[in-house]
Amino acid sequence: MAEKLYLYPKWVRLWHALNAIFILLLIITGISMQFSKPEFGFIRFDIAVSIHNIAGMLLTANYLLFLTGNFFTSNGKYYKLTLKGLFQRLTKQFIYYTIGIFRHEKPPFPVTKERKFNPLQQFTYVAAMYVLVPIVFITGWALLYPEVLFTKVLGASGLKVNDFIHVIVGFFLSFFLFVHVYFCTIGATFVSNFKSMITGYHESH
Amino acid sequence: MHKNLFPLSNVITKGMTVMVFFLLITSFQLDDKTKKTFKNAESNEFCFKCHGQSKYSYNNTESGHHVFKKMYSEAIVDRDLFYESNHRQFKCTDCHPEDYDTFPHPGRLRMETKYLCIDCHGGDPKYAKFNFEKIESEFQESVHSTKHSQDFTCWMCHNPHTYKISTRSQEKIKDIVAYDNAICLNCHADITKYQLLTDKVIPNIVRKHEWLPNQALHFKNVRCIECHAMVNDSILVGHNIKPKSKAVKRCVECHSTNSLLMASLYKFKVQEGRSKAGFYNGVIMNESYVIGANRNYYLGILSLLMFGFVFAGIAIHATMRIIKRKNNG
C-alpha cells in the first residue's frame, strides 16, 4: 500500500497550476513569434503578441505569489540548496535515473516531509525559479517598454543583448518544461505525480 | 499743459514704433559663411527681406507713408530651412518668374504655373539614380492622384523650399521616420489642410490604428508608407499610396525573416544582405528590434538541436522503461 504524504498545500497547487498555464502559453506563443513566416502562421502574429504580453505579466504576478508563499511558509525550505556534497548527491541521483531505475533499485533520496525534492529536482527547480524565470520576465518587461529602458538606461545596443537573453532563457525554460513533465511520469504510477498536484498528496512507491 | 504734452508723447511713441520695426526688418544680416557657401544667397536676400519673416514693409507712394504689413503665412519661406534643403543652391528666380524682381509684384504672377519635380528632374542623367520618371508614374497611380484633382501635386508633400533628402542620408532611421511621417501628418493630422482637398471628415489616426499592437512604438519606428505605399524595386521610396483597404495589415509581412522593411525602410541601409552567417536582417538590428525579423541563424539551429536532444533523451528513457517493465512481466 502506497504511503500518502500531504506535501502540496492549496496555495502551492494554485500557483503551480497558474504557472503551468502561463508558461505553456508563453512557450507556444513565443515559438510562434520567433519562427513567424508570412506563408505559415501558427498563431496569428498580433494575437500571439497579445497573449504573450498578457501571460508574461500574469506570470510575473504569479511569481510574486510564489516568492511571498516561500517567504512566509515552510515551503521555502525545500528550495534551500546545501552546497556541501551537492555534486555527489546530483551524481547519485543522475546515476539512479540513468541506471538504477531500470534495475528497480530504491530511489537514493526518497520523498519525505523534510525532503520534497531529490537533489536533481531541487537543483533544477532552484535554477528555474530563482534564476531563469526572473531573467525571462525582467527581460520580457524590458522588451515591452524598450523606450524607457534602452534609450534612457542602456542605450540602443542593450536591446539586442536583452532580446538574445530573453530568447535563450525562454528556450531553456522550454527544455526544463519538457523534462519536468516527462519526469513526472516517474512516480508510484504513471499518473500519480500529476494527481498529486491536484489533490496535494504525494504517493510513494 | 496736458494739451501740449499729448501730441509730443504721440510723436515719441510713433517714432519709437518705427524704430523698433526698422530694427526688426534690418536686424537680419546675412553672415559671411552663408554668403560663401550659397552662391545665390545675396541675390536671394532681396526676396527673403520680405518673405523670410512674418512682416514686411514698403513705402506707399500714394500716401507717402511707410507701411508695415503681415506676410501671408503661405508666402513665408524659412531662410534656415531653405539653406538646408535640396534646392539650397538655387536662385529664387530659377523657379519663379524674373518679374518678381519688381515690387509691388505684378498681379498676373499669382497665376504662375509652378514647376513640378519631373519638369526639372525628368530625363536628366544626373538624377537618373532617383528615377523620377518612375516616381511620377507611381504617383499618378496613387490615391493622392486618382482621388484628387490636379491640385494635388508633388508640393503637397515635398515643400520645394524646405524639402531635404532623408532616406539616402546617413541619418538615424528614427530621424528618417520622424521626418517622413511629419510629411503625411502635415495634412492627415491638420483638418484645415486636409479639407483643402476633400470634403471628408479627417480620420482620427490613433483610433484608426487601434488594432496595431504597441501603436506608439510602431509610429516612432516605421513610416506610414511602410504599410500604405506599394514597395517598388526600382525606386527607394514608394510613391504609390494604396487605398486603405490594401494597406498592409498582416504583422508577419514585417515580423519575419523575409521582412517587408528590408525592401522599404531599410532598403538603403541593407548591406549585409540575408546572409545566413549570423543575424538575419542585421541592418534592422542596428537600430531597432523587430520580433520575428531579427533572428540569429545559429541560435535557431542550436535551439532546434537542443530540442532534438531533449526529445531524443526523453524518448530513449521512456522506451527503456517500457521495455524493462515488459521484461519484468
List descriptors:
heterodimer; A: 205 residues; mainly alpha; Fumarate Reductase Cytochrome B subunit; two-stranded antiparallel sheet; globular; B: 329 residues; two-stranded antiparallel ribbon; 3% strand; disordered N terminus
What features would you describe in this structure?
The complex is a heterodimer of chains A (205) and B (329). By secondary structure, chain A is mainly alpha-helical. Chain A has a single domain (4-203), classed as Transmembrane di-heme cytochromes, Chain C (Fumarate Reductase Cytochrome B subunit). Helices cover 66% and strands 3% of the residues of chain A. Chain A has seven helices and two strands. In chain A, α1 (10-34) runs antiparallel to α2 (45-72). The longest helix of chain A has 28 residues, at 45-72. Chain A is globular and about 50 Å long. The mean pLDDT of chain A is 88. Chain B is mostly helical and 329 residues long. Among the domains of chain B are: 1-112, no CATH class; 296-329. Chain B contains 15 helices and two strands. Chain B has helices at residues 2-26, 32-37, 41-51, 79-82, 92-95, 117-121, 132-141, 143-146, 173-188, 191-194, 205-208, 215-221, 224-228, 282-287, 297-327; strands spanning 55-59, 66-70. Chain B has a two-stranded antiparallel ribbon. In chain B, a hairpin with a 6-residue loop joins β1 (55-59) and β2. The longest helix of chain B is centred in the C-terminal third of the chain and has 31 residues, at 297-327. Chain B starts with a helix and ends with a helix. The relative contact order of chain B is 0.06. Chains A and B meet through α2 and α6 of A and α15 of B.
